[in-house]
Design brief:
By secondary structure, this protein is an alpha+beta fold. Helices cover 42% and strands 12% of the residues. The chain is built from five helices and four strands. The strands form two sheets. A two-stranded antiparallel sheet has the order 1-2. α3 packs antiparallel against α4 (67-77). One of its GO terms (molecular function) is structural constituent of ribosome. InterPro entries: Ribosomal_uS14. This is 28S ribosomal protein S14, mitochondrial.
């Protein structure tokens, strides 16, 4: 086996920070699973089309414009892909791709967030202390 092949193999191995249930694992890309890849694609498409969609939606909702122009704007908005709609974006944990219980500020699930906060891995997070 060639030495270069062994060196290239190392970049596919991802060493996680002792996240519960996630040890050493082999990853072919930087996303947790195909659901996360789909969500990232939707976020990218939504960001790319944001200005144009906003402009067309403003024309659709404008009561001053004639009905013909608003109907043209309706047809134009339907030409966008469904993945370009911001409503199709799901909040997922960036580490585990868990869809529920997301702490929005960090985009992590509550389980991962709590684990990292317990070991002082998140800046600005402090345990509640009283009395």
């Amino acid at each position: 086996m060639n030495l270069n092949n062994i060196c290239n193999l190392g970049k596919f191995i991802w060493k996680s920070q002792a996240v519960p249930g996630y040890g050493f694992q082999q990853v072919r890309n930087k996303w947790a699973n195909w659901l996360m890849i789909r969500d990232v694609k939707r976020r990218r498409m939504s960001a790319e089309n944001f200005l144009e969609r906003t402009r067309i939606n403003a024309m659709r909702r404008n009561d001053v414009l004639p009905i013909e122009i608003r109907e043209l704007a309706d047809k134009e908005i339907n030409k966008f892909e469904m993945n370009a709609i911001p409503l199709r974006i799901n909040n997922r944990c960036v580490i585990t791709s868990r869809p529920r219980g997301i702490v929005k500020e960090w985009r992590m699930s509550r389980i991962v967030w709590r684990h990292l906060a317990d070991y002082n891995k998140l800046s600005g997070v402090q345990r509640a202390m009283w009395g």
